[in-house]
Write a structure and sequence with these properties.
Length: 371
């Protein structure tokens, strides 16, 4: 039984939570049937499906067709996420705290004011996010019902003692059929924060505490076994420098395995992926602790002797290879240490190289395609 399955005793659905603006497929508004695809569109639809994001738009690529939705995604480096059924890609606007979703088949654009910074795929076309003071909210992007509380809960004390900060919100960072992984942030303001993890199952809340070396900017991805996650983040030494770290954590046992330390005087690790073949990749940045020092970016893969580049040249992001195709965001010129890395989206297939977009920050693909 998955965490997202509603059960007796969980709080009832409410009529409306905030204002829900839906271009298609939400908010309880009757929607016209999606237009039928032409034969040419159906042929294009047979190509691979993936999504990319810039600071100003979310886009889904399906074969030779690209569908775009404008958005104010700011400087977030978060990956684009797909629903479990692969029918919707979604990302969260950092400024308005609005979830933006794009339909793969019907080209629908849905905007949901969630008051959240992160959202996860729960099951089918259902997405979920955290709402203070203690609710897991959810919405079925394929349905017409507005967002509603899926579960109300009180987080127990963290097994890791607080270190002088105060609680400053929480976020859902990853999910499997067994657990939802939640990060609760302890903060003193400015750049200082500590992340305390919780694994939420259907009938249990497991306080996991802090993972050594992963305090600020925590991001996570689910492993193939359903109860282990890879987490990435950094320990800050000052407002301008910290060290990026990566680890796996088993929600069932709270067993933590630290992965090799990243190179660089100052570094950051984010946007991890864990494929079904067991490989773990992460996006990284490294820089010198000097005013105006450039930041070098690349995506690395865990290897026997540490970390190895996933490609022959630095990339901002790269999806796992699928048959004869490769999808990557080639890194541009080094950015300022505080800047968000971006690059040119390139698709390699059948010996050809095609540039699709510029200023791309992150990628995403359906689970079956990205594994």
């Amino acid at each position: 039984m998955g965490i997202a399955t509603k059960a007796s005793g969980w709080c009832a659905r409410i009529a409306v939570v905030g204002a829900v603006l839906a271009v298609a497929g939400c908010g309880g508004v009757d929607q016209p049937a999606p237009p039928r695809l032409t034969p040419a569109e159906e042929q294009a639809a047979k190509g691979s499906v993936f999504a990319y994001r810039t600071d100003a738009e979310l886009a889904v690529v399906r074969g030779t067709e690209t569908v775009r939705a404008p958005g104010s995604f700011g400087h977030s480096s978060a990956a684009v996420t797909f629903t479990e059924d692969g029918q919707y890609a979604f990302a969260v606007e950092t400024s308005s705290k609005t979830l933006v979703a794009l339909g793969v088949q019907d080209r629908s654009v849905t905007r949901i004011p969630c008051e959240c910074t992160d959202a996860v795929a729960l099951r089918g076309s259902v997405v979920g996010w955290w709402r203070e003071p203690g609710q897991i909210m959810s919405m079925d992007l394929a349905g017409t019902e507005p967002p509603a509380p899926e579960r109300e809960l009180v987080l127990p004390d963290s097994p890791s003692p607080m270190t002088g900060g105060t609680w400053d919100g929480a976020k859902l960072v990853a999910a499997t059929d067994e657990y939802v992984l939640l990060a609760r942030v302890e903060s003193r303001g400015l750049w200082w924060e500590k992340s305390h993890l919780y694994a939420i199952g259907p009938d249990v809340i497991l306080p996991l505490g802090r993972v050594p070396g992963i305090d600020a900017g925590l991001s996570a991805a689910a492993g193939p076994d359903g109860h282990t996650f890879v987490v990435a983040g950094a320990t800050a030494r000052s407002a301008t420098c910290g060290s990026g770290n990566v680890a796996t954590i088993d929600a069932a046992t709270n067993g933590v395995r630290a992965l090799p330390t990243l190179p660089g005087e100052c570094s950051a690790a984010y946007s991890p992926r864990w494929s079904t073949d067991g490989s773990i990749t992460i996006a990284t940045r490294k820089w010198a602790d000097l005013l105006g020092a450039p930041s070098m970016v690349d995506r690395l893969q865990s290897a026997a002797q540490g970390w190895a580049p996933v490609g022959e040249y630095p990339v901002v992001d790269m999806l796992p290879r699928a048959q004869e195709s490769m999808i990557e965001v080639v890194a541009g010129e080094p950015t300022d240490a505080r800047g968000t890395p971006h690059g040119v989206l390139v698709v390699h297939k059948g010996g050809t190289r095609e540039e699709l977009a510029k200023q791309v920050i992150s990628l995403g693909a359906p689970v079956t395609a990205a594994s």
